[in-house]
Amino acid sequence: MAESQLTPETSLKLGGAFTIERAAELHALLLHELQQQTPEAISLEGISEIDCSGLQLLLALRRQLPTVQLIAPSPAVEQMLARVRLTSLLDN
């Protein structure tokens, strides 16, 4: 199940499967969360599975919020980004 949560530190924590089956739901969820507050960072540690649709969502986040850090990638996210040579998407 995909989830997101804003923490008091204004970090948005993403989790669950970022796959094509959930793309529309995830997009709506992210829009809703980002309308409430712009986080300082987005934590990717809870993403258990990611495919090209999930990657598109992360790329859209980076494009729309270029100053927001993408941090703490899960192993699934790290593998996907390494596979497509986009590890520069992350903020270390």
UniProtKB/TrEMBL annotation:
Domain STAS: start-end pairs: 12-92
One Pfam match: STAS_2
InterPro entries: MlaB-like_STAS, MlaB_ABC_Transporter, STAS_dom, STAS_dom_sf
PANTHER family: BLR2341 PROTEIN
Annotated protein name in UniProt: STAS domain-containing protein
